[in-house]
Specification:
The chain is an alpha+beta fold and 98 residues long. The chain has a single domain, classed as PRC-barrel domain (SH3 type barrels). The protein is 14% helix and 35% strand. It has a six-stranded mixed β-sheet, with no helix packed on it. Pfam families: PRC. This is PRC-barrel domain-containing protein. InterPro entries: PRC-brl_dom (IPR027275), PRC_barrel-like_sf (IPR011033). It comes from Halorussus aquaticus.
């Protein structure tokens, strides 16, 4: 990215891939911290069911922390979600919300 500010809504509809090239889902919404003027999470739909089978059950989406995002362009690249799902951070805040 060139550092030019973009509208937050430009994230909606973009496909999300892990940094290993695995399709994760599609951005459906964005979670904001209004006081900090920051994006704190992205809501994903159209999930890769194989990737999230143990986590979402019958649900249709997940919320992932925005700090997992590595790059935003034509697609959104995030950290390797599979490893994050199976090994939550010691703080306990790295779990994916359903």
């Amino acid at each position: 990215m060139d550092g030019t500010p973009q509208e937050i809504t430009s994230l909606v509809g973009r496909e999300v891939y892990s940094n290993n090239g695995v399709f994760v889902g599609e951005v459906e919404d964005v979670q904001l911290n209004v006081q900090a003027c920051a994006v704190t999470g992205i809501a994903l739909g159209e999930l890769n069911r194989e990737l999230f089978s143990d986590v979402v059950g019958g649900e249709n989406g997940v919320m992932i922390p925005y700090r997992w995002v590595r790059a935003v362009g034509d697609v959104v690249l995030i950290n390797d979600t599979i490893e994050r799902l199976r090994q939550p951070d010691a703080e306990g805040d790295e779990e994916v919300a359903v």
